[in-house]
Amino acid sequence: MSFTGSCLRIGTIRSSFCHGRWVRWRCLAGAWSGRRGETMRSRETPAALQGTAQSAVLEVQGVTKRYGSFLAVADVSFSLERGQVLGMLGPNGAGKTTIICTILGLVAPDAGQIRIAGIDARQDAREALRHVGALVESPTFYPYLTGRENLRILALLRNVPEMRITEVLELVGLAERAEQRVGTYSLGMRQRLAIAAAVLHCPLLLILDEPTNGLDPHGIVEVRELIRGLAANGQTILLCSHVLAEVQQVCSHVLILDRGRVVAQGAIDTLLAGDHAVFLRTPVPERVRALCAMTPWLRLLAEDGNVLHLAVPSTCEEEFAQLLLTEQIPVLELSRHSQTLERLFLETTSRSGKRSGNHPLRRGRLEWWRLVKGQEK
Predict the structure, then answer these.
(1) Is residue 377, in this structure, part of any structural domain at all?
(2) Are residues 353 and 205 in the same domain?
(3) Are both 205 and 76 inside the same structural domain?
(4) Is the separation of the CB atoms in 162 and 155 below 8 Å?
(5) In angstroms, rounded to a whole number, what is the distance separating the alpha carbons of residues 303 and 279?
(6) Does any domain span residue 368?
(7) Distances in Å between the alpha carbon of 46 and those of 10, 52, 219, 278?
(8) What is the mean pLDDT of residues 251-280?
(9) How do 12-14 and 22-24 pair as beta strands?
(10) What pLDDT was estimated at residue 111?
(11) PROSITE patterns from the xrefs (predicted)?
């Protein structure tokens, strides 16, 4: 096998999405240009992004993808500005992997447009992917080579200087283990080495797909802190994760998918700052349902027997209490709490209500309050 062919094996992984076939995954080192000796053009700001303080590094517009009769992604649109960290969430089969594969050029969408650093990724994939680094699923390295040697092979393909290898090893906390064979690394260390490989060429956009998957608690904390450090340094990141607490701690924005469609997106602070969740237990749930139908600001989120999950704006709490008194609705139990990313996820994904173990109405009450005088439990 030629030197180039051997090197490319580093970026080759088995993709479950591709039905067990081996694919050339050009993510760890960004998209390989196919020509050795090129300069690190990813260090430069593209002309499309120059002159603006806040420009979209990634734009996904109306992307749709079908596999036969199965609609994997339906008219998905979102953008990622410079310096933002976007968490992409969704149940299994929601379309997250398909979106990532279309961005990386591994899957061609049936419709829609993807622009990376202002470059049309479908018309000029090679140029667009120069600005991308990615870690998807489990990284593959030569186990008999050291961490530094593995990075050196990738650096040769993009003419990255040795000094940059040292920089990224220090960045991910592997400087002291750089001369040890990767075969001796823990899973968490290999994940950090993969992130080092992904940022080796200073990409504008870093894509991380389940970076903490399979890690022990210590490994999860290490990778999470690394991502937070990258974000603090202004790295634009698209993070796909099933760990909601991780997304809430690391990300500035969130995109929630369900059955191939966007069901919620925006800044996390904005999405969580609106309504308060209220749990109401009453012997007359049908009257509360009627009340929701007549009251514009009162929303019924879910119902489980005589327990109702309501969304009440924080500015309307007293009005809600007065409404219960006026309508003479008996209250057996009442509690409220602020919105969390977990509850937002459960409320916006259509399958959440079918999971009895995770149903929001079966969760413990976080804060008790009495709104209706004279009505005891």
Answers:
(1) no
(2) no
(3) yes
(4) yes
(5) 10
(6) no
(7) 28, 11, 35, 48
(8) 85
(9) antiparallel
(10) 96
(11) ABC_TRANSPORTER_1, ABC_TRANSPORTER_2
In whole angstroms, what is the distance from residue 99 CA to residue 102 CA? 5
- Of the three residues 244, 264, 284, the one that is the final residue of a domain is 264
The pLDDT score that the predictor gives to residue 177 is: 96
Query: Would residue 337 count as lying in a domain?
Result: yes
What's the CATH code of the domain at 308? 3.30.70.250
CB atoms < 10 A from the CB of 124, how many?
12
d(CA 197, CA 365): 45
**Segment 178-219, tens digit of pLDDT:** 999 999 999 999 999 999 999 999 999 999 999 988 888 888
Q: How far is CA 43 from the centre of its chain?
A: 24
The C-alpha torsion from 112 through 115 and 119 to 124, rounded to 10°, is -50
What's the domain range around 311? 274-362
Q: How confident is the model at residue 351 (pLDDT cuts 50, 70, 90)?
A: very low
Cα separation, 207 vs 27, in Å, equals 9
DSSP label at residue 362: G
Residue for token pair 């003479």: 328
Percentage of residues in the chain having pLDDT higher than 90: 52
The residue written with tokens 């999971």 in the block is 355
Residues 257 and 293 in one domain: no
Whether 365 has a pLDDT exceeding 70, the answer reads: no
Q: How confident is the model at residue 141 (pLDDT cuts 50, 70, 90)?
A: very high
- In the predicted structure, residue 31 carries a pLDDT above the cut 50: no
Strands 299-304 and 307-313: antiparallel
Same domain, 285 and 260: no
Q: For residue 76, give both structure tokens.
A: 């998905």
| Pair 63, 114: CB distance under 8 Å | yes
Q: How far apart are alpha carbons 244 and 90 in whole angstroms?
A: 10
CA angle 39, 40, 44 (to 5 degrees): 120
Q: What is the pLDDT of residue 46?
A: 55
Predicted TM-score of the model (pTM): 0.70
Confidence band (pLDDT; 50, 70, 90) for 44?
low
Closest C-alpha among 200, 44, 180 to residue 135: 200
Count Cβ atoms within 10 A of the Cβ of residue 299 and give its class: 0-12 exposed, 13-18 middle, 19 or more buried. Answer: middle
**Structural domain count of the chain:** 2
For residues 169 and 231, what is the distance between their CA atoms, to the nearest angstrom? 17
The CATH number of the domain holding residue 148 is 3.40.50.300
Shared-domain flag, residues 154 and 291: no
Q: Residue 237: inside a domain, yes or no?
A: yes
